Amino acid sequence: MPWILAAVLAGVFGYAFAWRARSRSLGTALVALTSLLAIVPLLKLVALRLRTFNEWDFMGFWLVGHAALQRQNFYDPSVLRAWAAPFAVSAGFRREIIDVGFWYPPATALLFAPLGLTGLHPALTAWYAVLVIAAGADIYLAWRLFLRAEGALGLVAVAALLFALPGISEALNYAQTSFIALFCLLLFWPKWRARGGSAWLALALFIKPFLAVALVYQLLRRYWNAAVGTLVAVALLSLAALLLFGPQTTFAFLGQRHATPPSIVYSEPTNQSLSALWLRHTAAGTAHVLALISSMTIFLLSIVVTVNVPAERDEIGLALWLPAILLMYPVTQIFYGAMLLVPLLVLWKYRVNMPFGAAGVAAVYALNALCSQQSDGLIAAAFLDWLLLVAVCGGLARSARSGERALPATNGA
C-alpha cells in the first residue's frame, strides 16, 4: 500500500494537475481509487477497535472525563486508579497513564468531560464517530484552503495525501486526538495573522501543546494583536476549566503535584522526536548532548530563515515550524504525523519556488508516503519537510534582499 500511495501521489501532483480537462477525470478516478484503498483498511481498523477494546489511549481520556465531571482531581493517580478499578488494565497502561495522572493542562479535560456521561463502550463508539467526522472535515478544510481550484481532483488528492502520511493508522488505533487538533489548526490557518484565529489556536494548543509554536511565530513576526488574542483565548479556556473542575485540580497542575512519566516514554519506539532517536541508538549521556545540539541547530536555523521571509510570504515560515517542532518536542508521538498535511500543502502552494517545481513537491509527497512504514518514519518525513521549507524560506529571503520579484504562490495548477 505505501508503494501504491507513493506512486499515485507522485503521478497526480507531478502531472495530473497539468492535464487538460479531458484527462482530469482519469486523474480524479485514479486518486479516488487510491484514497478508497487507503480508507478501507482504516475503517476496518476502527471496526476492529470497536469489537476488540484497546485501552490505549482512549481509556485514559474516559477516566479523565469521569473524574472531571465529578470535579475530582484528575492529576491525582489515586483518583484515576479508583475509576479504573473495575477494569483489567495492562501493567504498561497503569505505569504510563494511570500512575502518572493527566498529562495535559486542565482546559484539555474540557474535550474529554463529555466522555464521562456514559459507559466505556458507548463512549468509545461516540469518540470514534467524532474522529471520523474530524478526519473528513480536515480533508474538506485543507482542500478549501489549498486545492479548491482543482475541484474534485483536489479534494481526493488531499484525502490521498492525508491517508499516506506517517502515523495515520496509529492515530486511529490509539483513538488519538490528532484529527481534532488538525481541524483546529486548519480553521486557525487562514486567520493566523489576526485575532480571528485566536480561539482556534488556543483550542489546538490545549489538545496538542506543541502547537503553541504558532503563538511563538506570531510573536517572532510581531503580530501582536493575534498573539494577544491567542493569550486571551487561552486565559478564558483556563478560567472555564477552573470554574468547571474546581481550584484543587488547577492548583494541582500549577504546583505539579502529580507524578512524572516513566523514562521509557522518552525513548519508546512510538516516540518520534530527535531526542528519542538518539536515546534509542546511543548511550544516554551522549544522546542528551546530541539531542541538545540537533534541536538547537533546528531552532536557531528556523528562526534565522523565518524572520527574514517577506511579510507577504510569511505563511511558509509558519509552515516550517510545524515539522521543526515535531523534531524538537521530546514526546512527539507517531500519531502526530497528521500535522504534516499543512506544511506539505503549503509546499505545493509555493511549488514555483521549489527545485523541479511540481515534480519536486510530488517526489516529497511520495517520500512521505514511503516513510509511513519505516520504524522512525515520522522523524525522517519531518526532517525532509523541514529541510525543504528551510530551502524555500531561504530562497524567498534572498530574493527579497536582492530586490528580485518572487514568483507568486499558487493554489491551483
Structure notes:
Helix 11 packs across helix 13. This protein has 20 helices and no strands. It is mainly α. It has one domain. The chain is globular and about 65 Å long. The mean pLDDT is 87. 68% of the residues lie in helices and 0% in strands.
Short description:
About 70% of the residues lie in helices and about 0% in strands.
Number of helices: 20
**What is the end-to-end distance?**
27 Å
Kindly state the number of beta strands.
0
Q: Compute the CA-based radius of gyration.
A: 21 Å
Topology:
Layout: H1 2-14, H2 21-51, H3 58-69, H4 77-84, H5 91-98, H6 109-112, H7 120-147, H8 151-164, H9 168-173, H10 178-188, H11 198-207, H12 213-220, H13 224-245, H14 247-254, H15 274-281, H16 284-307, H17 315-328, H18 341-349, H19 357-371, H20 377-402
Which terms would index this structure?
single chain, 413 residues, mainly alpha
